[in-house]
Inverse folding.
């Protein structure tokens, strides 16, 4: 899974824009408070002050893109003192660049002299003390938000990878389960000193006989095994159904279900095997499917 770079960039620009709008509004209200508190002007319009703040924050906005791309490179790194100090240094450098830009703009727009000393005393130092705190806080807020946003994107990718791995493993398990079943393929019957191998697909039905089980097939003699029907039921395929307390039938060898007074299954060799009333529904369900 890949990150949609364009979508992520738009999302992060939106985040910076929201922070920018909040910062401009905050500083505008702050300026209105000081003007009214110290009676600097009689008529103060919010929109007029808001417009005066915009160009400075637009500069702040575009310079802040450096953080966006820098954090993207470092988001997968472990947060430690070195990373924190690195970004504090970047933020302070960006703030100084901001102060320098807006100071130069204000100086050339408003000043009637090119005195360097006046530039530093009346503009650079003024904006340094006035703007630095909120610029620093703004960049810190953006750094935290962007870091969390990028981390969330990476986490979602890792989660999706795990989901894909789980799905792949599940499919592989199902394939292996089908190809490597623990069900018996043959029955081994001891006949005297010999061991008779009877393929499962040759068996028609199994009949309880005291402590033994008689194994019946179409083209082979019937053999007796010293085992219980319950034990055989656990190792045989699903098409071997317990139809009676005394019998298990290979349903693939059934050609008919006789629903008379005493229900029974008629096998391919025309042998009839009784079906108990308690197992009749199970037999019907199997045949229906």
């Amino acid at each position: 899974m890949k990150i949609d770079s364009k979508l992520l960039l738009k999302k992060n620009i939106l985040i910076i824009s929201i922070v920018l709008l909040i910062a401009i509004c905050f500083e505008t209200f702050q300026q209105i408070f000081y003007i009214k508190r110290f009676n600097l002007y009689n008529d103060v319009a919010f929109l007029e002050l808001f417009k005066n703040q915009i160009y400075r924050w637009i500069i702040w906005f575009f310079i802040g893109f450096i953080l966006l791309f820098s954090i993207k490179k470092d988001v997968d790194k472990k947060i430690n003192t070195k990373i924190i100090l690195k970004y504090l240094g970047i933020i302070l450098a960006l703030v100084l660049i901001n102060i320098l830009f807006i100071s130069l703009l204000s100086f050339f727009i408003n000043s009637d002299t090119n005195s360097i000393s006046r530039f530093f005393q009346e503009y650079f130092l003024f904006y340094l003390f006035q703007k630095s705190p909120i610029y620093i806080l703004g960049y810190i807020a953006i750094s935290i938000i962007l870091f969390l946003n990028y981390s969330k994107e990476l986490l979602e990718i890792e989660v999706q990878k795990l989901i894909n791995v789980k799905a792949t493993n599940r499919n592989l398990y199902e394939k292996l389960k089908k190809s490597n079943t623990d069900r018996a393929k043959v029955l081994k019957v001891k006949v005297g000193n010999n061991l008779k191998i009877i393929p499962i697909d040759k068996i028609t039905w199994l009949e309880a006989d005291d402590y033994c089980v008689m194994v019946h097939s179409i083209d082979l003699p019937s053999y007796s095994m010293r085992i219980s029907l319950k034990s055989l039921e656990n190792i045989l395929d699903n098409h071997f159904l317990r139809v009676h307390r005394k019998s298990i039938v290979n349903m693939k060898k059934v050609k008919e279900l006789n629903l008379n007074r005493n229900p029974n299954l008629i096998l391919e060799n025309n042998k009839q095997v009784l079906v108990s009333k308690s197992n009749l529904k199970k037999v019907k369900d199997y045949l229906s499917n």
